[in-house]
Design a protein that fits this description.
With 222 residues, this protein is an all-alpha fold. The chain is built from 8 helices and no strands. The protein has one domain: Ferritin. Helix 3 packs across helix 8 and helix 6 crosses helix 8. It starts with 6 loop residues before the first helix and ends with a helix. Component of a multi-subunit COQ enzyme complex, composed of at least COQ3, COQ4, COQ5, COQ6, COQ7 and COQ9. InterPro entries: Ferritin-like_SF, Ubq_synth_Coq7.
């Protein structure tokens, strides 16, 4: 059995009772917290544009991620080894999307018009790579999470440059850092589960990663 197969359980044990930043958005006791309900009014035009495009891409990315795992589960869900692993990663992506939907409303972000495309493309990518085999499915995860990890890193740098002291920005940065760490954990799990043994791994990674980068740029604008 690969060493990271139970990574999610290990993480739960090591974090103990510590609340993750995103839990604030699922805590009913914080429904009236200004840090979770309001958006900065003192951003420069460039900062507002940066925030809008970042959260629009993040929401679209989480939609696509959910459908990638949905597609993989449709093919590999009954596999006793990788089925539970894919399901665990999917559950994290469901949580990510729930939080991103709330952030979209909080910061009055226009959702991308490509949401339906993200669903169809995500499911198709997940199912197609799963049909190629377990290793190809993991290679898909590796490629996607590599791009998303880099994208979240860029967003953290942008948020660090904002001049506003609005209380929503520190928690937003913490949430993005949390989600970045989740995505990089998915990447590590994919590698530990032999993603790099997939047929034509380099080509598959290039195609999937390149597609993700194009999708990011399109969602920024549309």
């Amino acid at each position: 059995m690969p060493p990271r197969l139970n990574a999610f359980h290990i993480r739960a044990l090591t974090t103990g009772s510590r609340k993750l930043p995103s839990s604030a958005y699922t805590d009913a006791h914080r429904n009236y917290d200004v840090a979770l309900q309001t958006t900065p009014s003192d951003l420069t035009d460039l900062e507002r544009e940066t925030l809008d495009s970042a959260l629009r891409v993040d929401q679209a990315g989480e939609i696509a991620a959910n459908y990638i795992y949905k597609g993989q589960m449709a093919i590999l869900g009954r596999d006793k080894r990788v089925g539970p692993l894919i399901q665990d990663m999917w559950e994290q992506e469901k949580k990510h999307l729930t939080v991103m939907d709330k952030l979209q409303v909080q910061h009055s972000i226009r959702p991308t018009v490509l949401s339906e495309v993200a669903k169809i493309a995500g499911f198709g990518l997940g199912a197609a790579t799963a049909l190629m085999g377990e290793e190809a499915a993991m290679a898909c995860t590796e490629a996607v999470e590599t791009v998303i990890g880099e994208h979240y890193d860029d967003q953290i740098k942008d948020l660090n440059s904002f001049s506003s002291k609005h209380p929503s920005l520190p928690i937003l940065k913490d949430v993005i850092q949390e989600f970045r760490d989740d995505e990089l954990e998915h990447l590590d799990i994919a590698v530990d589960n032999f993603s790099q043994r997939a047929p034509a791994h380099a080509l598959l990674s290039s195609v999937v990663g390149g597609g993700c980068k194009i999708a990011i740029e399109l969602c920024k604008k549309f």
